[in-house]
Amino acid sequence: MLMKTGTIKARARRRALAWAGLAVAVAAGIGAGSVIWQQAQIDMPVAKPGQGGAALVERGRAVALASDCVACHTSDASKPYAGGMTFDTPFGRLYSTNITQDPVNGIGTFTDAEIVGSVRNGISQHGRRLYPAMPYTSYTGMSDDDALALVAYLRTIKPIDSKPPENTMSFPFNQRWAMAFWNLMNFKSGRQLPVAGKSEEWNRGAYLVQSLEHCGECHTARNFIQGLGSAHLAGGDLGIWKAYDITSGPGGVGTWSDNELFTYLKTGAVHGKANAAGPMAEAVENSLNHLPDADLHAMVAYLRDLPANGNPGSTPARTGQGQAYTGTTALRASHPQYDPNSDALGAEVMFNANCATCHAVTGKGVGEYPRLFGNSVLGATDSTNVVSVLLRGVRRKVDGQEVFMPSFANLSDAQVATLSTFLFKQFGNSKVQVTAAEVAKLR
Amino acid sequence: MPDSNSTPMSADVVIIGAGAAGGAAAVKLLRKGLSVLMLEAGAPLDQGMLVSNYRNGAYKNNHMAPYPMMPWAPHPNFVPHDNGYLIQKGPAPYTAQYIRGVGGTTWHWAGQAWRLIPNDFRMQSLYGQSVDWPISYDELEPYYCEAEVEMGVSGGGALAGDYGSPRSMPYPMDVLPLPYAFERLRQRYQSVGLELLPGPQARNSTAYDDRPACCGNNNCMPICPIGAQYNGSMSVRRAQGLGLNLISNAVVFKLETGEGNRIVAAHFIDQNKEVHRVTGKHFLLTANAMESVKILLMSKDERNPNGVANATDQVGRRLMDHPASAVEYLADEPLYVGRGPMCPGSINNTRDGAFRSERSALRIDVHNDNPTRYLTEKYVAQGYYGNELNDKIKRDAERFVLLKSMFEMLPDPENRIVLSDQKDAWGIPKMEVHYRFPEYVHRGYDVCREHFADCVKASGGTEVKFSERGQYTNSQHITGTLSMGSDPHTSVCNKLAQAHDHENLYFGGTGVMPTAALVNSTLTGVALSLLAADSIIKASV
Questions:
Q1: What pLDDT shows up at residue B332?
Q2: Which of A250, B194, B368, B417 is deepest in the core (most CB within 10 A)?
Q3: Domain ranges of chain A
Q4: Per-residue pLDDT for B474 more than 60?
Q5: pLDDT of residue B7
Q6: Dihedral sign of CA atoms B45, B51, B56, B57 in order
Q7: 8 Å CB contact between B39 and B250
Q8: pLDDT tens across B18-63, in order?
């Protein structure tokens, strides 16, 4: 179990669920030809006089970073943009494409319009429809200038002759043309325009959050046919990870200071409050950490202004709950036995043997090792991320500094359930109970 | 226990002993597509359980205390008293420590992952002492590289370079930084010509092998609580992911021979005292340099009346270790030893020279164990109490220094392991150890004491306590008992690590080393095991 090597991209896994709405969309799609036609219009921008050269490429590099292209289009770190990342979906397995300039396996033969169409419309070369694992639903807001710059940058990526494996989607989900009907229900094609009356910073932040960084693809809940719902950024479910409410409600980031939000986006960690794991760690590592500080401040300004969109009143603040553990001395005096094969293994015994070395016997954390009590992940009403961190660990490298927590997947489902229930009770939201069956689902 | 219906009791390669040597070899063999069955006398061990045992246990100073001892797989233990498993026949004591369990003794070690230097392989040719290895440093070098990758070794860097052991590949990880105390002592010992360097360690300096970087718990022995330090169970687990069939609680007591004196089967007894037989094409014995000997000596049959691989009565002879002397003192400045891993640096420029024809060379480890417990026990015993005790512990713990030197034993055929008439609880003979120190070591001690005195002086030491000439402690680097050599009358296996007497029996681990040299032996033992695995792979095609 510890040798698990397959990579599951949770973000895309969730997005892939979107196709469950296919059949519904087909029914609703009759007579919707004009909308389909409209959505397929690739508005290829025209370069302005003098636009081009190194400055355009450099801007495109920044757009690619902000859009975090590399995270999904890379499976082997030595072959960036060569694709092959696995996306497990309920309907089969997808692999991300090679977007290097390789003429056979990459996008070397794509026209500029075909690249822009892929990014903003989900329509690739020769009209081939992309699955919404590719977040064109967000990228559609990308400005003409950024789209041109992105194309210019992608043209500079040296070809890597590497062919991602074939998708294994089952019928009818292997019928790419049918995505047009899904789009009918779930896709609104068009550029993101500035909102009048809001500051330039706010608008920049809104553009980054909604379009390039595609935050909503994870942080916004899906509707019944798996399109993005209306509770913008109020939290989404990615299967093995939960994307939290990041609106200004109490269950969101309302208790965070601007500086904390900025620091989190920049580094993935705010001591005592939050530590990015899973897909968020990747987003920080590959994208957010590389944004100019002004862009991060802009994102904060926009997020700050989002109305509380969770369920105000019903959700306690995720931060600041729980308290330090003081039971170590009594535990040691009781001469506890640690039987690794017992599903009845006690929570405190496990905590002392597996957690306390780094997080301290009190749970107050040491140095880069997070404080447990008060931490937002343990203050959540949902246990997904705590269990996933226990099963998968944390790996995040920012500014050359690696943060690493090993996996504790050697613990049994029942043991993980016991341990995480204790962690919530002691350090966070004491109402949360975790069952072995829930752990098994996330393993 | 193995269910003969579900567990195939046969494989291309049967490995006996699930430690670092067996684990690394299993990984290599499985990657080459060979099937591997591994038998381990002890039980599976779990990091969480061991950390719990340590934290909640009373004998904090006994590195063996957290390790459960199964009645069918006893191991030597000397604290609080000798458990009588290893019978001392003298004249010198040989208080071996090793762990029987999945992962083996690397569960507790200091992680020092030194290579020998080229001259170590040519002691007889160069210095007229000891023996030459049948292979050169260059022949072992590729296996050192493999072993370092498998174990995850950090080392080298601007200060240390290659430590005099030429490399064909960089270290898998950057060297760990020297703790403050070591940096200060490095500066001060320079005045007496002794070079303190950050050592190579099987310890992560960055996340590696899905394990975290060392964060300085200073708890390498008895158990690294976070898995930053390599242990053999990590290789065994990797091998299991590659299809290893591991049977624990399987105490091998006999190797069965057949036509052409080939090994045809291994017989083991389980925790229920039931006996099983497993077959294989090749057998690799990596069951510790002492326990492997026991298996061979017990395996007597008509073809092999002295036991398997023992036609010339060489099995179990040339038992070696690194006898160690020590000095402790209080430096004239606060150093705060006890931060970082337990053995992060050594004095390494005393390992080789023409003097090796006359006396043992030496290597001096600066110990980094937190001294608080040791000093507290000492001062309480002296009658200190109250604030005076507290103040004394605080002041002295800041300044405490412990140096330990290891010496090179000579391969003496009379230093040996033999079977005892006494039996353990499962009816398997215990071992007797015969051990004595040569003048060669004592003369090394004399020079070492001068070096120690220099170190003390260079750092303004007071309250100095030297260990005595002739009184050496074990370093738990058990070597020589399965010596590799070209002459069957002075060795057990050939340069392929293949038994002289049996074409399909191979050895791995530290017992294969014909000389102990001056460095911790694990890395060399694993490299030799990988060499043996290579020999098996070549014999399989």
A1: 98
A2: B417
A3: 10-186, 200-304, 328-442
A4: yes
A5: 58
A6: positive
A7: yes
A8: 999 999 999 999 999 999 999 999 999 999 999 999 999 888 888 8
Q: Name the 3-class secondary structure at A228.
A: strand
Q: Count CB-CB contacts under 10 A for residue A4.
A: 14
Asked if A353's CB is within 8 angstroms of B55's CB, the reply is yes
Amino acid A28: pLDDT = 52
Closest listed residue to residue B119, CA positions, set B165, B171, B177, B79? B165
Q: Rounded distance, CA A265 to CA A297, Å?
A: 10
- pLDDT for res A306: 87
**pLDDT of residue A299 exceeding 50:** yes
pTM, to two decimals: 0.91
Question: CA-CA distances (angstroms) from residue B328 to B375, B400, B444, B455?
Answer: 11, 7, 18, 11
pLDDT in tens, A84-107: 999 877 778 899 999 999 999 999
Known catalytic membership, residue B477: yes
User: In chain A, which residues have their Cβ closer than 8 Å to the Cβ of B44?
Assistant: 340
Numbered residues of chain B with Cβ closer than 8 Å to any chain A Cβ: 44, 46-49, 51-53, 55-56, 206-207, 210-213, 215, 217, 225-227, 237-238, 240-242
Contact (CB<8Å) B217/A3: no
Cα A71 to the center of its chain, rounded Å: 10
Residue-level pLDDT at A312: 52
Tell me whether A347 touches chain B (CB under 8 Å). Answer: no
Candidates B49, B219, B235, B339: best to mutate against A (most CBs of A within 10 A) is B49
User: Kind of pairing, strands B10-16 and B36-39?
Assistant: parallel
Paired residues of A162 in beta bridges: none
Average pLDDT over residues B457-482: 97
> Residue A42: what pLDDT?
83
Closest chain A CA to residue B211? A406
Q: Is residue B444 classed as helix, strand or coil in its secondary structure?
A: helix
Angle between helices B386-399 and B372-381 (to 10 degrees): 140
Among residues B63, B267, B282, B477, which one is catalytic?
B477
**At CA B426, angle to CA B425 and CA B430, rounded to 5?**
70
| Closest approach of A335 to chain B, Cα-based (Å) | 6
Q: Does A327 touch chain B (CB under 8 A)?
A: no
Chain B interface includes A27 (CB < 8 A): no
Predicted confidence at residue A13, as pLDDT, reads: 46
Contacts of A405 in chain B (CB under 8 A): 212
Among the partner residues B52, B206, B227, nearest to A336 by beta-carbon distance: B52
Nearest neighbour of B227 by CB, restricted to A338, A367, A406 = A406
| Contact: B49, A335; criterion CB under 8 Å | no
Q: What is the pLDDT of residue A3?
A: 31
Q: What is the pLDDT of residues A250-276, one digit of tens each?
A: 788 888 999 999 999 999 999 989 999
User: What is the reported pLDDT for A22?
Assistant: 53
- Give the CA distances from residue B356 to residues A21, B78, B128, B320, in Å, rounded to whole numbers and listed in that order: 80, 33, 9, 17
Of B48, B206, B213, the CB nearest to A350: B48
Q: What is the 3-state secondary structure (H, E, C) of B132-182?
A: ECCCCHHHHHHHHHHHHHHHCCECCHHHHCCCCCCCCCCCCECCCCCCHHH
CA distance B240 to B23: 9
Question: Exposed e or buried b for every residue in A354-364, given b needs 16+ CB within 10 A?
Answer: bbbbbbbbbbb
Q: What is the ipTM of this complex?
A: 0.91
Cβ–Cβ under 8 Å, residues B277 and B7: no
- Of the CA atoms within 13 Å of residue B451, those in its CB half-sphere come to 28
**Residues of B with Cβ-Cβ distance to A357 under 8 angstroms:** 51, 217, 225-226
Q: Please give the Cα distance from B132 to B116 (Å, whole number).
A: 13
CB-based contact B426:B71 (threshold 8 Å): yes
Q: Tell me the CATH architecture of domain A328-442.
A: Orthogonal Bundle (1.10)
3-state SS, residue A74: strand
